[in-house]
Every structure is written in C-alpha cells, then in structure tokens.
Amino acid sequence: MRQIMPEQSGKVQTVLGLIEPDQLGRTMTHEHLTMTFECSHVPPASGDEGLAAAPIEMKHLHWLQQNPYSHHENLLLNQEIEAVKEELLCYRKAGGGSIVENTTTGITRNLPVLRQLAKETGVHIIAGAGYYVDVTHSDETRKMTVEKLTDIIVNEILHGADGTDIRCGVIGEIGTSWPITESEKKVLRATAHAQTQLGCPVIIHPGRNKAAPGEAIRILQEAGGDISKTVMSHLDRSIYDPRELLEFAKMGSYLEYDLFGTEVLNYQFNLDVDMLSDSQRVQTLAFLIREGYEDRILIAHDIHTKHRLTKYGGHGFSHILKNIVPKMLSRGITQNQVDKILIENPKQWLTFK
Ligand SMILES: CCC(=O)NCCS(=O)(=O)O
C-alpha cells in the first residue's frame, strides 16, 4: 500500500527540501549535530568521580577520551551549535557535501537547529524519523500500537516532525537494545510498514551483541521491510569475527562502519570486546571489498559527544575525508571504490524509490 507523494520519488529529502541525488556529493551517513546522550551515562570508576565532575580541560583530555560516557557535560552535544557550525564549514572545505543526522525521538532531536545549520553552511542535512532505544521511550510511546507508530513515522517524513514543517529524509537511527525489547520490536515493525508505504531509506542502531544486527534485520524482514534499502549501523562494535560478518552481510543490508575516530582501550558499553582501531576499520573495509561488498559499504564518525569535536581536541567531522581516505588509498582501496563508499552508495540508499 504505497502512499508516497510523487514529488519524493527519485529524490533525496533534506531539511531544506527535496534535492536531486547527484547534489549530495560525499556523504557521512551517520552523524549527530545536536543531541543529548544522558540516557547512556556510565558511572565513573571508583576514584574518578572528581574527573567526571570537573570542567573539560586539556589536562583531563586523555581521561575524557577513554571515559567519554562518564562525564555529564560531555554528553550534551546540543550545547555546541556554534562549534558544530564551524566544523561543518571545515567539512565543506574538505570536500564534504552532505550529512545524515541520525538523532531520533528520545535523544533531543532539534529540527529547527538542523535547518539553520544547513542554511548557514551549505551542507545538505538529512534528518531522521522514529525512535531511539527503549530506555528513552515514553510511557505514551510504549502504549502505542504498531499502526499508531507507523502513522507518526510516516507523518514525520511526509509533513514534518516535532510540530514543525521540517520533514525527515530517513527512518532512523531506530534504536534497539539487546535483547530487543517489546517496545523496540513494535517500532521496528512500524519502521518496516512506513518504509513499505514510502519507499524511503532506513537505518538501524543494533544492540551491543553479535546476534543483534541479524535479529533486527529478521524482524524488519518479517514485517515486509526492504532490507536492500536498510543500513545496519555500528558494525565496528558488533560483529568481530570475519565469518560471522560475511554471514550477516548475506542478509543484504548496507554495512556501516561509523565509529571512525573512536580509538579506545576499553569500550565503556561492553568491556568484553576490543573496539576496532581506525587501522582495523580500514582493514575490514578492504576485506569486505575483496569479498564483493563494495556496493554495500557506508562509513561515518557517529559524533555524538563533545570530546570528538575539534574544539575539544577531537577529530571532528572531516577526519574521514582528511585522514581515512588517504589511508584507504594506501591500503589498496582504489579511488573508484572510495567514491562508491562516500558518494554512490549513500546516493543509492538515500534516494526515495
Ligand atoms: C546516539 C549515538 C549512538 O547511539 N551512538 C552509538 C554508540 S555505540 O553504541 O556504538 O557505542
């Protein structure tokens, strides 16, 4: 049952309106420009309470980089609109064209700010519809039927979200935990139903378990979702074993490595795994390309805290363009393959059917 407005078919929907897919240019498919992440606060280790409460300072930077989720102020990216604007201007200078802003309901989406940033910087910004993980669902959301959730998501794309006329251009990031909760399953089914009506792109945040990406895709598939137009995010902290990665890849979603710039000894959300370094991320991209998946790969930084902005000594939104692309080329990935990952694959994904 297709409801799409004819004007959206074949186009990409940004916060400033529809554009031709060829206008996107190089695209980071998973970023946040303004959001809050207090829902994921991790209590500091014993003895670190003072550091966690101190203002962000140079002498504490290493601690902050290794413990980003234990510092309340670091979780308030929404306080940094001016710094983000400067970053976006640098991103354009570095050759960037577009950014998919994945902030959904639950982590303080702010569509007027996104529109303002798009106007002031010339970067195309595509906003996300739908809901983040269960801990952020309101009681009202939890009580909703799949049909009601579907209506809300469809409305955010066709007419505008959060009481504005600013329309989202993707569904997601749709948050899931591990195990996936009942409320999250309803949102996944609503996502699939909305996608069926609209022919739009979808992006999923999996729970922190190697089985989580496959389980989320299965739920979407059973509800009729278009997996070929769906991105699985955060694979760099989800599936480590190459054979298991190839098994997941066969399911047909886009494969997103979106934590470029994150280099940590301990991954605070799952101390049992060793988070990939940037070099290992590039090796994994090369592996997936050798295995025939170059049309399915997407990359980004998923900036969602202050400490990753250049203002705070972080790598910023231009790290992939300035540092990772040269590394990819030096490791045998061709310019043509880089262009696929940064331009062609995002374009195919973001264009409404
Ligand atoms: C809202 C930002 C987000 O969910 N980022 C993912 C962080 S992680 O789960 O991959 O560590």
TrEMBL record:
Cite the entry's keywords alphabetically.
Answer: Hydrolase, Metal-binding
Gene3D superfamilies named in the record: Metal-dependent hydrolases
For the keyword Metal-binding, the answer is yes
Q: Which residues bind a divalent metal cation 1?
A: H30, H32, E173, D302
What's an example of a GO molecular-function annotation for this chain? Answer: zinc ion binding
Q: State the needed cofactors, names only.
A: a divalent metal cation
- Keyword Plastid in record: no
Write out the catalysed reaction: N-acetyltaurine + H2O = taurine + acetate; N-propanoyltaurine + H2O = propanoate + taurine; N-acetyl-L-methionine + H2O = L-methionine + acetate; N-acetyl-L-leucine + H2O = L-leucine + acetate
Database matches in Pfam families? PTE (PF02126)
Q: How is the cofactor bound?
A: Binds 2 divalent metal cations per subunit.
Q: Which residues bind a divalent metal cation 2?
A: E173, H205, H234
Cite the InterPro entries for this sequence: Metal_Hydrolase, Phosphotriesterase
Q: Which family does it belong to?
A: Belongs to the metallo-dependent hydrolases superfamily. Phosphotriesterase family.
Its recorded name reads N-acetyltaurine hydrolase
Q: Which organism is this entry from?
A: Cyprinus carpio (Common carp)
